[in-house]
Amino acid sequence: MTIIAAILLFGVIVFIHELGHFLFAKKAGVTIHEFSIGMGPKIYSKTKNNTMYSIRLLPLGGYVSMEGEDGETNDPNAFGKKTLLQRASILFAGPFFNIIFTVILLIPVFMFIGTPTNSNVLGEISQNSPAQKAGLMANDKILDINGKKINSWEDILNTLQTTDGKKINITVDRDGKTKDFNIQPQKNEQGRYVIGIAPERDKSILNAIPSAFTGTYEMLKQMVLFLGQLVTNSVPGGAANAVAGPVGVIGIVSDAAKMGIPNLMYIGAMISLNLGVLNLLPIPALDGGRLVMLGIEGLRGGKKLDPNKEAMIHTAGFMLLMGLMLFVTYKDILRLF
After folding, report:
1. Could you tell me which residues are beta bridge partners of residue 10?
2. What angle do helix axes 84-113 and 205-231 make, rounded to 10 degrees?
3. Closest CA to 289 of 95, 67, 76, 82
4. How many alpha carbons lie under 13 Å from residue 148 in its C-beta half-sphere?
5. CA–CA distance, 177 with 16 (Å, rounded to integer)
6. What is the CATH number assigned to the segment(s) 116-202?
7. What is the set of active-site residues?
8. Among residues 177, 186, 312, 336, which one has the least CA distance to residue 249?
9. φ/ψ (deg, to 5) at 40
10. Domain boundaries along the sequence of the chain
């Protein structure tokens, strides 16, 4: 069942991407021949208003087949006949929808796990930590540390770092009663002094929404950093072992599904953002490569590139991507064994 959940999630993410292209193409009045989820042989199709909607056997992607996207055509509603802005919006819509979908997926995740508040009320106490051994409990409100008044979680973190690892006295309010605890801080892997406490978490949707935007931004920063490491060949463990194809992705999602819905949605958010960002790379055949071509057209004062030559460039890019996909899939299969 987890494999099925993984394939369905991957299919939904691809659907969201292609839906962005489809809706903006429809809005611009482009002739659309097919809206497909999956690649390879058809397993289901339905034609409506001269557009075929299909599901194909291999869950490796999808596409929106538009008239005049590659090559010459006389159709006045072809993709190539639309304005520069209309074509750019159609191409950008797919990645943009993936980014928005990332935020949407993260909202219920943060509603489930909660977002840390900046209050001085304790949430989770780590097992076998100095705080637990001393007797601190969840919902205790820290009033002062070594006599210094505490008003926020930031005050707690900053004060702990000024102790130089010496034993500290913490005064808390527990159910209206004041209690004192002597605790010995420990150094964590980052070299910071900790006692094993976590802040109280708010699980309301009002806090989940901004946290989803912040989480998406943090994911995006890590992704850009990773892409930079790929370009400079400085990925720890090697680039070939750090990337995954469809087989690897389905395996990752399958493992996440075993750990529950929140984990599955979080992994889905990461995959959606990856799909959106990677499609914006300036590589022929990808949305980013096509946007580069439109940018060149704009710099030429609206003079279009030869459609047939541009089609050849994108075809070459597509073949290169397919070769890369086969290589990554091969590595995925080796990892399975």
Report:
1. none
2. 120
3. 95
4. 12
5. 54
6. 2.30.42.10
7. 18
8. 336
9. 85, -155
10. 2-13+83-114+212-336, 116-202
Residue 39 to residue 62: CA distance in whole angstroms:
6
Residues 141, 173: Cα–Cα separation, whole Å: 5
Please choose, from the candidates 194, 218, 207, the residue with its C-alpha nearest in 3D space to the C-alpha of residue 118: 207
Tokens of 36: 């497909």
Q: Could you give the CA distance from residue 250 to residue 244 in angstroms, rounded to a whole number?
A: 9
Distance CA 318, CA 133 (A): 60
Rg (CA), the chain: 26
> For the segment 303-335, what is each residue's pLDDT rounded down to a tens digit?
877 777 777 777 777 787 767 667 666 666 666
pLDDT in tens, 62-108: 899 999 887 778 888 999 889 999 999 999 999 999 999 999 999 99
Residue with tokens 């920063």: 221
User: Is residue 238 pLDDT above 60, yes or no?
Assistant: no
Pairing of strands 177-183, 186-187: unpaired
Question: For the whole prediction, is pTM greater than 0.85?
Answer: no
Q: Tokens 């094993």, residue?
A: 196
- Max mean pLDDT range (20-24, 263-267, 311-315): 20-24
Tokens coding 129: 């930590």
The encoded tokens of residue 334 equal 């080796």
